[in-house]
Amino acid sequence: xxxxxxxxxxxxxxxxxxxxxxxxxxxxxLDVQEGHxxxxxxxxxxxDLPALAQRVGxxxxxxxxxxxxxxxxxxxxxxxxxxxxxxxxxxxxxLPVGPGTVDRxxxxxxxxxxxxxxxxxxxxxxxxxxxxxxxxxxxxxDTLIVDAEDLETSRAFTRYTTTEAVRHATxxxxxxxxxxxxxFGVETVLATTPVFRDVExxxxxxxxxxxxxxxxxxxxxxxxxxxxxxxxxxxGTFFASFTLVTVICSx
Length: 251
Known about the structure:
10 helices; alpha/beta; eight-stranded mixed β-sheet
């Protein structure tokens, strides 16, 4: 089972009920005001940039940074009617943003993938002004549960996800500590539980099919057992969830 196009995956996840809920909460807590300069570090295809542009009004600036040219192309297309948005190619580990120039910053489901989350947070500290507010959101994949009669295979699926599929699978629980170590003051910590009752939506977001195939190939699960587990998910009442941690901190 092939991995979906990453931009399409991110946009669909952002538009889901789960995505809209936590992203709206993150933006509200970030308290973006008209005239602010706001940084979206690791903006991807720009799913959040229009909402940020609306909040900064006609006198503010939104800066979207990503290292993937294809993502940046979609972000530019998505914001071509928003003159207050700047799209910059760069890495969250070396942000192309001047020191002390940002009023608000967010990084959303990016730290779990980068080589060094602490360096990314140090970069956010460098580019933000004193008094700035920063929003962080990351999953804790160690809390991933998928209801199935074969409990051991569900546990093996989570072990594969945390050990092989995600570089920093538990970074969500470490956000407050990492933020303080980077020099931020932690203001708010929220742990929410996205719930999936639809197998197709869960398959898209959690990669049930493709990650089970990979778990089988990596020896975490017997092939026939993995096939029965995945097939059985759609044959009854379905439930899956994980914990998403959102942290608001100040510079």
